[in-house]
Amino acid sequence: MKRGLKLCAMTEPYRGRSPAPPQAPQVVSKTLKYGERDEHLLRRLAGALVLQWDQLPDALQDLIIDQAAAVDDRDPAPHAVPDIERFVRSVKSVAIAKTPDARSA
Fold first, then answer.
1. Does the predicted TM-score (pTM) go above 0.85?
2. What string of H, E and C letters represents the secondary structure of 14-69?
């Protein structure tokens, strides 16, 4: 119930108006700030994105590649759109080997 009340309070200034149309995703001039100890999380997210790449719409793939080319990195290494496209298309996926259950040992 509280959740519904909060939602109403948040949308109250827009009462009587039609909702704004959803904005199409676009490349933004921003970068991520994260600690070195969280870099493995970023790598996991990037890996998950690449593994699902072929399931994404072409327009979203193009947007993500353009955004990747625009994002700053910790290491000063320019990466052009063709470099990123080549990587995404050439990286190989490998099945994760199942580890034996510790209880069965």
1. no
2. HCCCCCCCCCCCCCCCCCCCCCHHHHHHHHHHHHHHHHCHHHCCHHHHHHHHHHHH
Sign of CA dihedral 37, 50, 92, 72: negative
User: What pLDDT, on the 0 to 100 scale, is given for residue 8?
Assistant: 45
Total domain count, the chain: 1
Helix axes 81-90, 58-70, angle to 10 degrees: 120
How far is 98 from 27, CA to CA, in rounded Å? 38
Length of the chain as a residue count: 105
Mind listing the pLDDT tens digit for each residue in 47-56? 999 999 999 9
Domain that holds residue 84: 55-92
37 in a domain, yes or no? no
**Predicted confidence (pLDDT) per residue in 82-98, tens digit:** 999 999 989 888 888 87
Tell whether 76 is covered by a domain: yes
74 inside domain: yes
